[in-house]
Amino acid sequence: MTGVGERRPSAGPPASADQPVSGGQPGRxxxxxxxxxxxxxxxxxxxxxxxxxxxxxLTLEAVRxxxxxxxxxxxxxxxxxxQAAVAEAHGNPQLxxxxxxxxxxxxxxxxxxxxxxxALRPGRSTATQLTTLAASLDGxxxxxxxxLLAEAAEIYTRRGLxx
Amino acid sequence: xxxxxxxxxxxxxxxMDQQRVNLDGFAVEDPDLGLVALRSPHDPEPGLVISDxxxxxMDGVAEQDFDSxxxxxxxxxxxxxxxxEVMALPDTELARRAVRPDVPRAEVIRLCAGATPAKLxxxxxxxxxxxxxxxxxxxxxxxxxxxxxxxxxxxxxxxLLAADSATAAAFGFREIETxxxxxxxxxxxxxxxxxxxxxxxxxxxxxxxVEEALELELGMRGLTSYAETVSLYGTEPVxxxxxxxxWSKAFLTSAYAxxxxxxxxxxxxxxxxxxxxxxxxxxxxxxxxxxxxxxAIGAQGVQNGGIDGASVAGSVPRGLRELMAENxxxxxxxxxxxxxxxxxxxxxxxxxxxxxxxxxxxxxDFVFSGFGSIQxxxxxxxxxxxxxxxxxxxxxxxxxxxxxGGLRTVPASEIGELRRYAAQACRAVYQHLxxxxxxxxxxxxxxxxxxxxxxxxxxxxxVLSAAHAIREGGLTVxxxxxxxxxxxxxxxAEAIMEMTRARLSGDYLQTAAIFDEELRVLSxxxxxxxxxxxxxxxxxxxxxxxxxxxxxxARGVDDLRAEQAxxxxxxxxxxxxxxxxxxxxxxxxxxxxxxxxxxxxxxxxLTVPEVLGELLAGLEEEGCAGRVVRFNDTVDLGRIGxxxxxxxxxxxxxGLQGKGTALIHRRDLAPxxxxxxxxxxxxxxRELYRLLGANAARHAKGATPDPARNPYNDEAIEARYxxxxxxxxxxxxxxxxxxxxxxxxxxEGLQ
Lengths: 163, 751
Known about the structure:
heterodimer; A: about 160 residues; mainly alpha; B: about 750 residues; four-stranded parallel β-sheet; 29 helices; about 45% helix
């Protein structure tokens, strides 16, 4: 092909010349995936997809061979745990908590994630349904998500947000 | 003449009434309705009571009375270890620390983590506009400012979306947000924008703003890479009307992160007022609750600054100040600010510019949470505050102030190539995947279109069916990559795979993250704002500064020389030394040194020979004979005119600079005096030059001239021509040689 295949040489606003340096490197919390240790993006060695494949294997060549599927494109919980630690070190424990809940949710299918979201919307669930769901999540290794649901059950009851 | 009666205002007021600003609605401040910007008498006093590590009272509400927002904020949103310290600080003291360059950002962030919503609302209400700008400059998370674009059209036309997405990416936008007039078209829009952005620039994040389940689904398939329409509201009833609770939003926030998608929430003044649910509170206080909640649920950022309610804030006193205060408050909570400016808040160009300019100057993580990169009518979010109509204005504003608003100039030819390439790639993918076929004519129209109205009749059902096929077929980003690769767009396929890999580290889930064109993440973590006063903080790199400075309209002397040369003619050849005339009908037209050399076209667009032709014809009409003499020792029009008069047998001379400024002079006058002057060269017509010639002849004969009036109008003549004048005068001056005698020029061919 001709044309724009050759990319523009100019440095855009984002292509800033003064390249930032890493701001703080907290210890890594991720187990198998040593995600973006410098927080600087690009392709870091060691990062894995949810499927367990190293990111470096996710090449156009692999696409041509038909080897790439959706779990290869999904983020690994270890990467999220690592990012949670980074967020904590940068003054945002709430973002860290969110990322840790997210790490738990990587184990659930899309439909189940959407179903839990639906259950949490106002007037959808009784307090008992929420606490039951919380207990089930807790039992499946999602304690943080479970705690969120349990707290919702308590507040929803008091504020009239239950079904 | 009609004299207005007492019931009708005078003409001056009627004229003012007709100005566009008077199409805007202005509301009387009314706290009971929530129509109050910064502070309502019903806002609570800031306060926080902690007992055994638990918040038992916040902003005047006891724990047992907490609504769901209070409850979530009190349990999760506040750093209790600093709460006592910050709540004890006087409001003015915290406000000063937010502004003072010598108080580090980190210290403000540390303190604000323990501040209640009412406390931050009180503090922000104290900041004056210039102080808000200082605070924004210091407190935004990311050092490098950035910008987001809307890319949509009325038809959801994929080829136009791809071309416009490539255009937006090339202009420098690092996030592209699309949406649909027809919900079911969403998957097609996401794919078209993804392909287009990959052609325009590497690393642009894509969002398709639709209802949450579908938006999440598109993200899960890798077709989009961020979300921002997760709305928060400042009161419990309005929040519940929005069919969510803080807990459902917290869960959704985690759901996006679990699929590796960047996400921010949306809030902003006016939403509660519009839903008659403001409970008498000020806009800033209600927004303070939203922002505290955003932090509490773990969102990395907030899109606010009015958003859909921007014109509600704009209708009340201090409303624009409130909008900017919202953005700064987000930054104080250590979150990414996507700073609004995405809804047209006024019919007045001046008001909407006034609303946006301070944020452009201060710099934000995203100056706009949706600059309409397409025309107003194609913006399916509704017109943004700035749109395609305003891109050149915005580029000029960046350049005027020397600030980085995230955009850059792209050469016209490159835009043409990018649009063609993007539309071709999109067509190839749709065809390859059996989604839709588009004709050559359609493609050509999409490439050239300034908006969807230029597409003619299109098959909108084809779009719907393509979108259906994408959704039902379960197509993912891998299918798009494979299709690009199979159809010869390997570079774009590779670019999207690189981006997909880069996202998997999760670095871009950190606060205020964007990718640059080398796929490096710039965020609060990797590119922290280090502003600490003059000489510190973000400064565009030299290449970036050049992008800001070099707008395509800029002209230098060389450009002008080439332009002038293109009008050059084989006329005005030197015809010997200029001699003093004896004939009383002899009038000399003195011209400036570059005439007949480098300067051939005057500012009015008439060539210099045409101007001279009219002057000579005017002289002839009144029975005089003109000749053209070039003076080589000065560019000063008065001196040229006077020297011409002294050579003329009649004692009357006409002075003409190449740029078209002309006057009539008489040999006994002082150099700076004259008989008639045409100073507004760009507006002088053929007829006026002829009249000038005729009047010079009348002066020569002692008859009464018919003085011409200088043609004035209401245009920004100086803005339009001053740069050309400077360059023209430089060309003139280059030919000046002191002591060089005047020379007669051939008048052949002038009439």
